[in-house]
Structure formats: structure tokens, C-alpha cells
Amino acid sequence: MLFTEEHQKLRATVARFIDEEINPHVDAWEEAEIFPARELFKKMGALGLLGITKPTEHGGAGLDYSYSVAFAEELGHCNCGAIPMAIGVQTDMATPALARYGSEELKREFLAPTIQGELVASVGVSEPGAGSDVAGLKTTAVKDGGDYVINGSKMWITNGMQSDWICLLANTSDDKPHVNKSLIVVPMKARGVSRAKKLKKIGMWASDTAQLFFDNVRVPQRYLIGEEGAGFMMQMQQFQEERLFGSASTLKALDRAVQQTIDYTRERQAFGLSILDNQSVHFRLAELQSDIEALRALVYRTCEMYIANPDDMETVKLASMCKLKAGRLSRVVTDACLQYWGGMGYTWDNPVSRNFRDSRLISIGGGADEVMLGIICKLMGILPRKKKTS
Amino acid sequence: MPYLFEKEDHAALREQVRRFAAKEIAPFAHAWEEAEEFPRELYGKAAAAGLLGLGHPEALGGTGGDLSHVLVASEELVLAGHSVGTCVGLGSLGIALPPILRLGNDEQKRRFVTPVLRGEKISALAITEPGGGSDVASLTTRAVRDGDHFVVNGAKTFITSGVRADFVTTAVRTGGPKHSGISLLVIERTTPGFHVSKKLKKMGWWASDTAELTFEDCRVPAANLIGEENEGFVAIMMNFVAERLALATQCVAIAELAFRQSLAYARERQAFDKPLTGFQVTRHKLAEMQTRIAAARALTGEVITRYLAGDEQPSLAAMAKNVATDMCSAVTDQAVQLHGGFGYMREQMVERLYRDARLYPIGGGTREIMNELIAKAEGY
Fold it and tell me: N or C: which end of chain A has fewer CB within 10 A?
């Protein structure tokens, strides 16, 4: 995939924005375990950064997905994983289905202001009892008059302590698990929505994560995205962007871990030479950088396929592979780098220590490694057929 | 399963430690880890239960036994106490006292060892400096003789229990460069010029405090010199095998605890209409975790057995440390993965154990230093 001058301009804008508006505050936001989403997103919206691939009639830039990948990759310039993730939820995880399937009215009401950064978005799939097993979720949305009445709870919701609306996956019938689900826009100020708990995590501290409860929450039926019963399919499509975006955003974060480690080990002396001058150290760093480049190539290739045909199963397979490898490699790279910082690497404020903690999420969030493997198996045609249970 | 070297008294000890840890530590484990501190009174309770005195002579207030008892107790303490930070905080005497016991005079043992074994004083060991961790022989904290005192200037970092320690067994440079210029001084916290310059925030081991210490014209009585001047390096080295075995044992215990948590969770948690243990990959993953724990424990056990028989194997001890630490990192990582989204959340024990585990390939000599040592010892 070749990037044009337009891509480079976008990258430069993002890098400058991060230097000026994000990185100076990251330490404080990490400490506070939340960041001012509305304030930050408004600034990003003004620069046109929150709707890169979204339709122009709703304030997006209407560009192809290579620009989203360039954007996500550049977000790796942030001194933490939390802010790229929170931004990614806003741009590529909570909004793709709304942009593709939502009614004009719904897009005007929710998509346009989200692209402007006026509204903060969340996506609600996981539940306390159903993480990887999306089909097993229990939240229900039952028609009553002109409304849906929603009951249930959602878990691990990024931006969940401050979002204005959530793209919620809920059961709208008792039909089979893959055809009984719908995506519904739920305003968080609706009566009966409670942000029960800000969850504490290993990493990603600057991003707030919530457990949410829905107790007889009423929303008008026009808040349904696309067709009723098509929610599972739409969410699976929406996951493609989530996974591509998530994978792309790890690339520069990993480059950063390696570069910071090179700088530190070049400086640090032990036994009369720099740590970097130890063969086992510089060989290892070369290996890690090679692995990162291989992941980058896979992400770029998948992006090209996604642009050509987003719903092709080959694309879905590749996107799942990206996510799997990004999660696994993030663990390897940050662990290996941290080691060369010695005791400094174990201290809380160390940049690689933060990267290590943040990165651990990639193999879990947005479908765990095991879910990716399941999808890949299925698309390779090597998943055993389910035995009929009598 | 008991180690092969264990006798009847070890079984009784395990039972006693289990009871103590279940009652005095486990109920508070999460809170203490979150608070980044455990109550000072715990030292007194652990002493009264005979835990701090393990491996130390009764004449000094100890409860007898040898390294095997110390390690068996520490395994149970982690397994039943659920708080690695608390265990390592309580255990800092295991590295602070040995030089005094080996080379100190009776007066020093009475002044420093006995109150620690009684749980009245907290001790720490200070070797690492901000400018040099693994490279012990290059340390730069200077102690200059001035009449009946040494005047100490310099800084130490990553000192376990250093924030609260009443005294710190400190490696200082009294002579020329490299190994032969190093001495050990006991520096008491009340000494003018002794500062806890920072309580360090770290990835894991939260319940245990870690300090950066600075010494500013700190006048330490010459009576606090442990052993002969300029012969401290050997005293430091002499304890390395025991320390590495202690670290390997902790890793085995942490991994075992993470495994138990994972197994219980995998049996309970339903996905796709069956428990996680209903999936072959889950069962195989659990089997691999347990296999790696068993292998690391077997090697650790062998090195302990040899050590108890007087056969110190520095190279094998370094291998045991690396095997156990890398095993522990891998097992706790898998434990987090098996817990899915819950594994990333701070309420889960495995989340904490994962962070705790990351210290071990770094602390007590990094993995890379162990490899250097093995290569040197094996002559290649």
C-alpha cells in the first residue's frame, strides 16, 4: 500500500495534534483514570479527524479506509494506549454500522454530532456473562408502543463513564442467537441507564471503562440501526473496522517501545559497555523491529482488501489475523523491551512499563485471541461441524 | 505436593503457615495491595507465629530450621495469603540479615538480628544504585572513614521495605574500584543524613514498599561495619544462591496460585453453552501451565536439595531462577488470557499476579545476568 501526499498531510496533522493537545496531558489523565473526552473530541472534530471515512453529507471526509489506517497508525505517537483506544471507539468502533445502515434522521441526530466531537460515543456488546460469546448476550429490547424497552447490563464499556450515546447490541426476539439481535442507539441520559462502576484495569488508565445497567430504558423504535434482527451481522461487520483500527494503532506504539529502548540501552552502561552493545540485546531488538514490519505489511495488505471488498470473507479472515498477531506481538515486544530497562522498567512511570500494561488488552478486547482463532479456523474451513445435540 | 526433601516437621509448618496466612493476610490481600502498604503490626504477628524466625538460630530469637523451612513457608504464605507484595515485604529480612549472620559479631547480631526476628524492627538490603543495577562491582556510594565513623554519601534504589526499614544493610565503597573496594555497613534510619528520597511506584508488588534512599554526609558508627573492610562483595555473593532459590520458589507459588484461580474460573465460566473447560484448547492450556509449573518446581527442588546437602550450584541456581521466572510470566499471562475481560480488571487476583510476576526476570539479578553467570560458570 502506497501512501500519498494526502496521507502524509493527515499524519502530520495528527502528530502535531498529539504533541500539542494530548501528550502534555497524558500523565495527568493516566493518574485521573479518565480524560476529558468531550473537550478533546471537539478539537479533533474541528480538524476533521473524527469522520475520516464517514460520508461527507454528515460532516465526514468521505475518504477510503487507507486514511483511517494512516490515522490509527499515527495515533501510536500518543504516550499511552488509552487515548488512541478511546478515539478509535468514537471513529471506528461505535459508528461504522450507524454510518452504513442508519436512517438519515438517525445519522443527522447522532452521527453528525459525533463526527463533530459534540457527542461522545460508546459501543455496547460485552456483558458480564458474555464476552467472547457475543451470541450469548442477555440484554433485551422489547417493543412497547412506539418504543423499545431495554433491560440488561453491559461490561467493559470504553468511554462509558462519559459517553452521550451507546451503540447497543440487544436481543429483540427469542429467535436463534444470530438472527435475534439488533443494534440500537441508546442515549445515555435516558431514564434507567446507570453507569454503575468505573472499572479499574491493568493498563489503559487514561481511558474510562464502565459497567452499565439498563433498567426499563425506553428509546423510540426509530433509534434502531438498519433492520431488526440484523444486529449480529452488522456488529460482525463493525468489528472489522475495530480490528483493523486496533491493529494499525499498535504499530507505532511498538516502534516507540523499540526506539525508546534503543535510546536507553545506548546510554546505559554496565560492565564497561553500553547495554545496547551486548549482542544478545541488539540482535533481539532487530528481530522485534522485523516482526513489527511484518505486522505492518499484513495490516496494509488487509486494508487494501478491505477497501476493495469489505465484506469478503477473505478480508474478514485477514482482519482477524491482524488482530491476533497485533495482540501477540504487542505482548512480546513490550515484554522484551521492558526487560532491557532492568529495575527502571518495573517502575510505574516508565514509558515501556505503561506500554506493557496497555498492550496486554489487545489480546483480550475486541474479541480475544481465541475468538480470532475461531474465526480464522472457520474461514479456513477447519472448524469441526457442530454435532447435533439431542 | 511436598518436595522430596521435606520431613514431617515441614508438613506441620505448611499447615501452620496456611492457617496464619488464611486468617491474617488473605482477607485483606486486595485492600493492602491497593493501598500499597500492609500494616506494620503484621511483622509482630508473623514473629509471634514463629514465621520471621524460621531458618535462624534460637539463641538469637529465631525458631530454628534451615532454608528448606523458609522456602516451604514462603510457598504456603503466597498460596494461602494471596498477596505477593505482603509476602515479599515481610520477607525482606531474608536478604538483609544473612550478611550480618555470616560475618557480623555477637554485638551486631544482638542489636540487629534479634529485634527483626521479634518483629520489632524492619530490615532492608541496599545494593542497587540509580546508575547501576546488575553491575554490583561498579557501585559508587562512598564511605570514608573519619575516626569512629564512616561518612557515607550516595544513593540506593529499588530497596524493598526501604521506606519503613529501621536499618539498611548497605553496600558501600570504602576502597578502590571494582569488587575489592566494597564493604557492608548497617545504616540506621535515625542516622542524620539518611533520607528516604522517594517511595517508588511500580508495576506490581504494590503492598510492599520500595524506596530510593540517599545518604548525605551520613555518619555511621564504625561499629556497624559488617565483617572486614573491603570484603563486603563476597558476603553479598555468598547469599545469592539462597536468594535465587527464594525467588524461584516464589515464582512457583505465584504460578500455582494463578493456575488454581484459572482452573476454578474455567470450570465456572460458561461460553458457547459450556464451561471453558469444555474446550480442548482450554484443557490443553491448563495442562501446559501445570506442566511448566511442575518442571520449574522440580528443578528448584533439586537445587534446594543440593544446597541443603552442602552442594551449592551457582550455575544451576541461576538456571532455576530463569526457568521459574519465565515460567511464572508465561503462566500468569495465560491466566489473564483465560479470564478474558475480567483478567484485565484489577479486582481479579490474576491481574495482580501478572503484574507481580513481571518483576522476577528483573529482580535479584536479571535473566541476562543469570545467563552471563551460567556461561561463565560453565566455561564458554
Answer: C
Report chain B's C-alpha Rg in angstroms. 21
Q: What gap in Å lies between CA B345 and CA A7, rounded to an integer? A: 37
CA–CA separation, A225 vs A183, rounded Å?
5
CATH number of the domain residue A223 falls in: 2.40.110.10
3-class DSSP assignment, residue B168: strand
Please, what is the average pLDDT of chain B? Answer: 96
pLDDT tens for each residue of A138-188: 999 999 999 999 999 999 999 999 999 999 999 999 999 999 999 999 999
pLDDT for res A387: 67
Domain carrying residue A139: 122-228
Using the 8-state DSSP alphabet, how is residue B226 labeled? Answer: E
Give me the active site residues of B, please: 243
Interface test with B, best of A137, A370, A371, A382 (most B CBs within 10 A): A370
Task: Judge: A278–B347 Cβ closer than 8 Å, yes or no.
Answer: no
Strands A209-220 and A193-198: antiparallel
Task: Give the rounded percent of residues in chain A with a pLDDT score beyond 90.
Answer: 94
- Closest CB from A270, A343, A368 relative to B362: A343
CA separation for the pair A382, A380 (Å, rounded): 6
Going by the DSSP 8-state scheme, the letter that residue B325 receives in this structure is H
- Distance CA(B377)–CA(B315), nearest Å, equals 6
Reading the block at residue B160, the C-alpha cell is 524493598
Question: What 3 state SS string does chain A have?
Answer: CCCCHHHHHHHHHHHHHHHHHHHHHHHHHHHHCCCCHHHHHHHHHHCCCCCCCCCHHHCCCCCCHHHHHHHHHHHCCCCCCHHHHHHHHHHHHCCHHHHHHCCHHHHHHHHHHHHHCCCCEEEECCECCECCCHHHCCCEEEEECCEEEEEEEEEEEECCCCCCEEEEEEECCCCCCCCCEEEEEEECCCCCEEEEEECCECCCCCCCEEEEEEEEEEEEHHHEECCCCEHHHHHHHHHHHHHHHHHHHHHHHHHHHHHHHHHHHHHCEECCEEHHHCHHHHHHHHHHHHHHHHHHHHHHHHHHHHHHCCCCHHHHHHHHHHHHHHHHHHHHHHHHHHHCCCHHHHECCCHHHHHHHHHCCCCCCCCCHHHHHHHHHHHHCCCCCCCCCC
Give the per-residue pLDDT at A130. 84
**Closest residue on chain A to B279 (Cα):** A370
Residues A207 and A285 in one domain: no
Which residues of chain B have a CB within 8 Å of the CB of A365?
Answer: 341, 344
Residue A390 pLDDT grade (very low, low, confident, very high; cuts 50, 70, 90)? very low
Question: In terms of domains, do A84 and A193 share one?
Answer: no
Q: Is the pLDDT of residue B230 over 50?
A: yes
pLDDT at B158 over 70: yes
pLDDT beyond 90 at B347: no
Tens of pLDDT, residue by residue over A175-214, are 999 999 999 999 999 999 999 889 999 999 999 999 999 9
Three-class SS state of B262: helix
Go through the domains of chain B in sequence order and give each one's CATH number: 8-91 (1.10.540.10), 123-232 (2.40.110.10), 239-378 (1.20.140.10)
> Which phi and psi (to 5°) does residue B156 adopt?
-130, 150
**Assigned domain for A390 exists:** no
Contact criterion met (CB < 8 Å) for B344 and A365: yes
Give how many domains chain A has, as a whole number. 3
pLDDT in tens, A226-244: 999 999 999 999 999 999 9
pLDDT in tens, B309-323: 999 999 999 999 999
pLDDT digits (tens, 9 = 90+) for A215-227: 999 999 999 999 9
- State residue B304's pLDDT score: 97
Give the nearest chain A residue to B362 (CA atoms): A342
